[in-house]
Amino acid sequence: MPPIAIKAREMPASPIRKLTPYADKAKAEGKQVYHLNIGQPDIETPQGMLDAIRGVDFKVWAYTPSEGTASYRDKLSGYYNNLGYNITSTDILVTNGGSEAITIAMQACINPGEEIIIPEPFYANYNSFARSAGIVVRPILSYIDNGFALPPITAFEEIITEKTRAIAICSPNNPTGYLYSREELIALRDLCIKHDLFLLADEAYREFCYDGREFISPMHLDGLEQHVVILDTISKRYSACGARLGCMITKNKELWEVALKFAQARLSPPAVAQIAAEAAVDTPQSYFDAVKREYEARRDALVNGLNGIEGVYCPHPGGAFYVLARLPIDDADRFCQWMLEHFTYENQTVMMAPASGFYSTPHAGKNEVRLAYVLNTKDLKISLLCIEKGLAAYPGRQ
User: Do residues 190 and 338 make contact, with C-beta atoms less than 8 angstroms apart?
Assistant: First the structure.
């Protein structure tokens, strides 16, 4: 048999999806599985998007331009300029989901063998995207005890080398929910300018900032025009994960031009998704206000419930719809699998994502799990009861 590529063998499994076979088996056995492992909201997609899809009227389902349709990019630039980004449609490259925006940005900014610094824990697929591009991830640990705040800038300085090309951040953060402050972003700006680095900013959860906290983008800071790359998606903003549509934004014209070559190589972003997303820009603010209130209620129910369980600690996140919790267990991978394979409470159990997959540092996050509060509060409370009962019964409890 021909050998499998080394790169393929070294690709990490998704901590979000790798336990799916165990969840499927539990369901086949008749168990109710509450999915807190994946950021798939149960919030309804805006009606305007669905109406736009129903109203599609073309005789040929054709390719779109590799950079995205002109009408969608024009509409999208208006959305970002309402946020104070001061861009034009020619700064936008439409992509097949936020994932492709990340992969294109990494490949356009960083050579194989060069390095990107990412505060961890971080979105697990950053590892996979970097590995696919031959890029080395240099992680910097953030810690649960201070809510996963940005590590000190001195920690970045210590690991910057001649191979460092970029820093990547996600705010509000997946998997921690941490929302970076203006002061933290200014410190990163100064660092990137000092060392002439790109700053890749994943803003998938921009709309989900709680407790009246302000969202600050690197696009709001002077001096970063040639350094910052915004990575975005409609998946979370409009609860439209299946549309697979995102974008990359940069004012660096040379970078945009080379990124377009990667976009041309994959041909084009999806036509119908762009029609729906163009309509989505007109979604009224009342939609987002209602969604934010719902997520705040879910966050409070989940965080308060977790901290009410003996031995559990969970910070109070400022955004997104995830929490990272520390549990009194020996191994989160083992515990999450055990909850699906061996545990049931009134024929119910919970699927969680082991946090180890959101770290690049060996052994980090071993007793932590990521939970997505994408279920209604009633289901979250049932899930919390299952977790409490599971922890009490788990043979590896610490």
Answer: no
